[in-house]
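User: structure tokens for this one?
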Amino acid sequence: MSTQLTDINARFEPEMDVETEVAERRQRLGQQVAAVRRRSRRIHLLRMVLPGLIGGIALLNVGWITVSSILGSMNNYNASGTEIRMTNPHFSDLSGQGTPYRISGLEMVKKAGNDVVVTLKAPSIEFKGDSDRFTHISAASGVYDTERKTFRMTGNVVMASGGSDMTFRTEEAVISLKDLTISGDKHIEGTGSMGHIGGESFVISKSGSDVVFRGRGDTLVRGLFNRQARLRGLGKS
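Assistant:
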């Protein structure tokens, strides 16, 4: 083994001169600054794009829920050249005031090419009002108009009010899906803890807590019910 000795008095010569080292340091610093700037631009872009993507996904989810409630929930369907029939249909949506409602039936019939109006056999509609109880309405047949936001029910219409303990019976009722107001111009009978009430036309709103019956001529009967289903006011004009 041999050992190479260096003269202690020899001048130290650095492997790299000062200017080259400074240049390389500047180059490395520039690369680091550029990387930070690229990362900052990506973060800024993501902050702009992500909220839009989240909103788009939310809209897609709402659209898919609406479509699946109409199509995906149908057990069976038969299509012909003039109409489409579906069994056990149900539709879920929100009123104009944000109240959820659900329409169902034994069978749905839709004319081919008509995506607005559908006819249901043995339909029912259910929605929750101000109280904790649900208003439930059933009938022999019904017409659901998605454009006008109305649901017309005919034949042995039975309405169990969620705003009181009243049960109403009539032959025709029209539900406005914008505010879930129920109206009709057929004879109506109502029974409950307050007794019996009848009329020749009616308007029921606020999930059954506000009831207006009109009798023959100008006779008007109005009933307001609280959650304990006791009559608060009754008048004629």
